């Protein structure tokens, strides 16, 4: 299926905050109550529409454990958006946000849009992190903030789509260099009807044919 | 090693086949390759090619390796074969390289080879400037074009795409792809774009992964850099089988196995170690990882994120891929013959064994997915669901358990499930299951009755809850009408209340009245006590209720109500029934104990009412009621009676030795004594007064000690709670990296102690023989305690050893500060 743009996302955060469940809810529209630990990096994709344009989201769901940090770090580069997730019922996951943010800013491109997500909002009775605290952290670090629930699907679509809108706006403003694949953005056939063919040798990057993952 | 983080269950087996002797291979094997040939009838065969140092090519066929083994010699007298590659239609490409880097490429059709010497179908000598590092051959696209890729160590790629000509060099083109040595080439799918066919070719170099799009003429249409990584070199690669438009490249690096599609990176499987071999057929990823003892064969079910086999292999030569079969060829190191190889067949267990293994390992969800994937019978899935439901029920996931049970309807007998949900705490779950069952054909009338019973039980539960609310929350008593609107049962209570207010009890029989109060009395009293009391008083005054004690038993739990009623009855009835006075006294004493009336009230009552003083005293003692000093005029008389009869009871016991055994502290015995006392006319209650008083004092002492114990326990609970609170506020972070026993990186399963010592569970078992990790706390701390706490007894014992040298060494070992040079030691020296 053809698309105008392809945005690459990365989902990061402590182990057990619900990163994989968010991805599963977004791509498959289902919730798995018992989810296995992610060992490495999982991959998902979905097509969305923004401003009448088809946009393909390719999402890397990373392992939250410290042991896999070296693997997951290599995925920062080449991502246009990041979903930084914490669990509202576990304060320590909120306390570790600074470390995650530093890691993301250090290894990603400077224009990467980061959405802060307080997941498990359905478990309000067990809440340890107030919504206001999440908002304050996001304000302080220039992030977009949302509380979501992968179980009830509340705000899950919005989280992914709003991030895509931010990226799209940045493209319109010319902030992103869309010809540089390292920014995590690719132009599809809808946006560029004729694909510029690269010479047979040398040079990296360039547009490629559209296609489904 | 991150492989231990994976869930693991053995669903594959490595079957040892008879060793094969490749006696005709009497030289070192320089290159090998294998393929997977899919026949028209759907079966697949594979072919293995081994090239030796003498220029011989040995072909082994999967069907019957011994019977179909062909060896032939390459027609050219060139240096040994350096690289070889085999297409799925059995076209073999072999490559030799001269000292001047010239490449000699020959193509053989293995389907035609029958003799020992066979001419090649195409050949060429191609000039090159660097060392050939990798070769891959395949037939691609609908036109079955012969594609050959040769990677060079400077990053160049030689590509042939087209029909085979006698002179291959006509179609070979050179492309500069990477900046480092190429160590992987995989031909992907063919995409038709209008009239042009585009072929995807994945190229892997030491520090880069590329996807190039080739057109029909073998020209590069586009190149995508999928990854560039200078820190961790790529080690080997494979392409997912079968090759479709979704086929993806799998690259092994030391830290993990990475997947790439033609556009970008995909999933990553964290398997650490140097990768020797990778293969991905359908959903099974086979990886061979080099270890210090040889190689580790790992099979991963990538759909379920599950390691399905982990086996050690030594001296691996190669792995052949077959029809869901893999043949592992390894050198037999135990054999004297150097040409003997072990052949192991890697085979998936049959479905029954797999399902049984998964259920044993509580992986029911994976078992269900497996059955679904294999299209197994519905019945099998139902039994797995039954087991899964049972497992979830034990774990406390009731809703999910019922969801699984519901899917067994029609296969599993409802009895098996109903019997598990009969407990009242599963009532809602049972209702849920029964509702689904009744929609199916297997439902019976009995099931309908059961569902009705469940509903009744639910109502009863609700009613009890409501009553609890009424009892504990007085503010809600006024909400009587509101509650009645909600509950059918409560509405019948309203009817009862209305009936009570308008009822004409004058003609009613006492038994009928009592039955009415037995049914509704307690509830009516709890919701409207004042009016209820008035009604009952009027019934008593009007002689509708004659036996008041019988009536009071209904409300025995409410002493205040009973006392009110009884006092009214005594006052208005002008009765002198002693029984009623005692009963009233007991009620007053119980109210006094609950701090509802004062001591003075009771003393006034005792003075006012003609009661036998000794009985009054016994009752007062029973309720620990004290008369105080001089409050009671007759107190002196009571004391006198007590003195006179002091030894009377003991004398009676002496006369009746049978009763002596009852003089124990056992409360049951005391009750028996009292029973006998009441039945014996010879013994009066006042006779046992002293012994009862003594008993009460003893009980008082016991009670005191119990109160003290309770206080101690409360203090203990408080201190434990504060400790827990402390841990909650100051949680301990476990960041240990190494096991404190073996000093190796921690891997699962491991045990963490609060003292910040961590161990592998296995290390604990092997080194300390602990059966459970929490058997004796932290083993290191235990050892430290042993070391620091001086064991004088032990040192004494050791110093008295028979062996003089041992004794002296023991003395020195125990430390100079503890050295007591006894006369005995002095003698030895």
TrEMBL record, chain A:
One GO term of the biological process aspect: secretory granule-lysosome fusion
Topology in the lipid bilayer: Lipid-anchor
PROSITE patterns to which the protein is assigned, alphabetical: RAB, RAS, RHO
Keywords linked to the UniProt accession: ER-Golgi transport, Golgi apparatus, GTP-binding, Lipoprotein, Membrane, Nucleotide-binding, Prenylation, Protein transport, Transport
Protein name: GH21751
One Pfam family named in its UniProt record: Ras
Molecular function terms from GO: GTP binding; GTPase activity; magnesium ion binding
UniProt similarity note: Belongs to the small GTPase superfamily. Rab family.
Range of residues in the leader sequence: none
Cellular component GO terms, alphabetical: autolysosome membrane; autophagosome membrane; endoplasmic reticulum exit site; Golgi apparatus; postsynapse of neuromuscular junction; type II terminal bouton
Localization of this protein: Endomembrane system; Golgi apparatus
Gene3D superfamilies from the UniProt entry: P-loop containing nucleotide triphosphate hydrolases
SMART domains, sorted: RAB, RAN, RAS, RHO
CDD domains: Rab2
Organism of origin: Drosophila grimshawi
InterPro entries: P-loop_NTPase, Rab_GTPases_membrane_traffic, Small_GTP-bd, Small_GTPase
TrEMBL record, chain B:
Localization, UniProt: Late endosome membrane
Signal peptide stretch: none
InterPro entries for this protein: PEP5_VPS11_N, Znf_RING, Znf_RING/FYVE/PHD
Domain RING-type: 739-782
GO BP terms: endosome organization; organelle fusion; vacuole organization; vesicle docking involved in exocytosis
SUPFAM superfamilies documented for this protein: RING/U-box
Database matches in Pfam families: PEP5_VPS11_N
A cellular component term, taken from the record's GO annotations: late endosome membrane
Matches recorded under Gene3D superfamilies: Zinc/RING finger domain, C3HC4 (zinc finger)
Broad class of the protein's primary localization: membrane
Stretches assigned to coiled coil: none
GO molecular function: protein-macromolecule adaptor activity; zinc ion binding
Membrane topology note: Peripheral membrane protein
Keywords: Membrane, Metal-binding, Zinc, Zinc-finger
PANTHER family (UniProt xref): VACUOLAR PROTEIN SORTING-ASSOCIATED PROTEIN, VACUOLAR PROTEIN SORTING-ASSOCIATED PROTEIN 11 HOMOLOG
Name of the molecule in the record: RING-type domain-containing protein
Organism expressing this protein natively: Drosophila virilis
Gene (UniProt): Dvir\GJ23593
């Amino acid at each position: 299926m053809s698309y105008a743009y392809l945005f690459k996302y990365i989902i990061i955060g402590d182990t057990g905050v619900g990163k994989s469940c968010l991805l599963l809810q977004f791509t498959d529209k289902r919730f798995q109550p018992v989810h296995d630990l992610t060992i490495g990096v999982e991959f998902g994709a979905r097509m969305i529409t923004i401003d009448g344009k088809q946009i393909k989201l390719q999402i890397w769901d990373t392992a939250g454990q410290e042991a896999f940090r070296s693997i997951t770090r290599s995925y920062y580069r080449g991502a246009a958006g990041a979903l930084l997730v914490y669990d509202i019922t576990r304060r320590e996951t909120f306390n570790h946000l600074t470390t995650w943010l530093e890691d993301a800013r250090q290894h990603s491109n400077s224009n990467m849009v980061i959405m802060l997500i307080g997941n498990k909002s359905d478990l309000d009775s067990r809440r340890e992190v107030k919504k206001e605290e999440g908002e304050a952290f996001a304000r302080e670090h220039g992030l977009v903030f949302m509380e979501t629930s992968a179980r009830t699907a509340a705000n899950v679509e919005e989280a992914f789509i709003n991030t895509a809108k931010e990226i799209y706006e940045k493209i319109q403003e010319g902030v992103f260099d869309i010809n540089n694949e390292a920014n995590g953005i690719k132009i599809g056939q809808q946006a560029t009807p004729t694909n510029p063919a690269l010479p047979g040798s040398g040079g990296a990057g360039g547009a490629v044919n559209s296609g489904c993952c | 090693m991150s492989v231990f983080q994976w869930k693991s269950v053995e669903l594959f087996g490595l079957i040892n086949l008879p060793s094969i002797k490749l006696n005709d291979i009497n030289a070192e094997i320089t290159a090998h390759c294998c393929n997977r040939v899919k026949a028209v009838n759907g079966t697949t065969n594979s072919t293995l090619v081994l090239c030796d140092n003498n220029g011989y090519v040995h072909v082994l066929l999967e069907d019957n390796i011994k019977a179909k083994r062909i060896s032939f010699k390459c027609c050219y007298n060139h240096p040994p074969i350096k690289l070889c590659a085999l297409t799925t239609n059995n076209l073999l490409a072999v490559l030799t390289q001269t000292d001047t880097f010239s490449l000699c490429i020959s193509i053989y059709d293995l389907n035609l080879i029958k003799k020992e010497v066979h001419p090649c179908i195409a050949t060429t000598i191609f000039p090159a400037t660097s060392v050939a590092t990798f070769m891959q051959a395949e037939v691609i696209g609908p036109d079955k074009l012969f594609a050959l890729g040769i990677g060079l160590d400077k990053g160049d790629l030689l590509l042939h795409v087209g029909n085979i000509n006698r002179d291959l060099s006509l179609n070979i083109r050179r492309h500069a792809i990477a900046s480092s040595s190429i160590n992987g080439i995989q031909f992907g799918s063919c995409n038709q774009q209008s009239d042009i066919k585009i072929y995807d070719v994945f190229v892997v170099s030491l520090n880069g992964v590329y996807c190039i799009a080739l057109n029909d003429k073998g020209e590069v249409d586009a190149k995508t850099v999928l990854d560039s990584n200078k820190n961790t070199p790529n080690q080997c690669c494979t392409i997912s089988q079968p090759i479709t438009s979704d086929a993806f490249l799998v690259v092994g690096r030391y830290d993990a196995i990475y997947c790439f599609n033609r556009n970008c990176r995909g999933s990553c499987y964290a398997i650490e170690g140097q990768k020797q071999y990778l293969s991905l057929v359908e959903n099974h990823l086979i990886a061979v990882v080099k270890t210090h003892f040889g190689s580790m064969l790992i099979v991963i079910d990538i759909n379920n994120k599950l390691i399905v086999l982990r086996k050690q292999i030594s001296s691996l030569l190669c792995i052949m891929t077959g029809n869901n079969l893999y043949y592992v060829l390894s050198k037999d190191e135990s054999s004297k013959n150097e040409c003997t190889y072990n052949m192991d067949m890697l085979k998936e267990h049959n479905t029954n064994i797999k399902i049984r293994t998964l259920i044993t390992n509580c992986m029911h969800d994976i078992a269900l997915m497996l059955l679904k994937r294999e299209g197994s019978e519905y019945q099998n899935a139902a039994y797995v669901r039954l087991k899964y439901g049972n497992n979830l029920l034990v774990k406390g996931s009731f809703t999910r358990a019922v969801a699984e049970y519901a899917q067994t309807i029609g296969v599993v007998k409802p009895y098996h499930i109903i019997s598990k949900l009969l407990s009242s705490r599963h009532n809602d779950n049972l209702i849920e299951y029964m509702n689904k069952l009744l929609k199916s054909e297997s439902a019976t009338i009995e099931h309908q009755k059961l569902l009705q019973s469940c509903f009744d039980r639910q109502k009863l539960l609700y009613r009890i809850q409501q009553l609890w609310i009424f009892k504990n929350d007085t503010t809600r008593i006024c909400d009587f009408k509101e509650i009645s609107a909600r509950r059918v049962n409560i509405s019948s209570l309203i009817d009862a209340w209305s009936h009570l207010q308008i009822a004409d009890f004058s003609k009613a029989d006492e038994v009928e009245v009592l039955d009415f109060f037995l049914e509704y009395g307690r509830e009516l009293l709890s919701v409207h006590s004042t009016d209820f009391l008035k009604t009952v008083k009027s019934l008593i005054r009007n002689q509708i209720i004659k036996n008041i004690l019988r009536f009071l038993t209904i409300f025995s739990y409410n002493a205040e109500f009973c006392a009110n009623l009884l006092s009214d009855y005594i006052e208005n009835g002008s009765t002198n029934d002693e029984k009623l006075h005692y009963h009233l006294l007991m009620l007053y004493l119980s109210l006094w104990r609950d701090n509802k009336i004062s001591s003075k009230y009771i003393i006034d009552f005792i003075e006012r009412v003609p009661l036998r003083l000794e009985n009054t005293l016994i009752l007062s003692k029973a309720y620990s009621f004290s008369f105080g000093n001089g409050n009671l005029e007759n107190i002196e008389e009571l004391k006198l009676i007590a003195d006179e009869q002091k030894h009377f009871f003991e004398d009676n016991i002496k006369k009746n030795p049978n009763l002596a055994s009852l003089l124990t502290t056992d409360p049951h015995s005391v009750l028996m004594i009292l029973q006998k006392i009441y039945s014996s006319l010879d013994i009066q209650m006042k006779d046992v007064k002293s012994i009862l008083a003594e008993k009460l004092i003893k009980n008082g002492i016991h009670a005191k000690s119990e109160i003290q114990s309770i206080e101690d326990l409360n203090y203990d609970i408080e201190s434990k709670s504060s400790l827990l609170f402390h841990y909650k506020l100051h949680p301990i972070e476990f960041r240990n990296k190494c096991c404190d026993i073996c000093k190796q990186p921690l891997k699962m399963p491991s045990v963490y102690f609060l003292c910040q010592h961590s161990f592998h569970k296995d290390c604990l078992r092997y080194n300390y023989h602990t059966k459970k990790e929490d058997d004796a706390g932290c083993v290191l701390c235990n050892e430290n305690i042993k070391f620091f706490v001086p064991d004088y007894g032990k040192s004494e014992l050791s110093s008295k050893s028979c062996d003089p040298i041992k004794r002296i060494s023991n003395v020195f070992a125990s430390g100079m500060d503890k050295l007591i040079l006894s006369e005995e030691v002095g003698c030895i020296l």
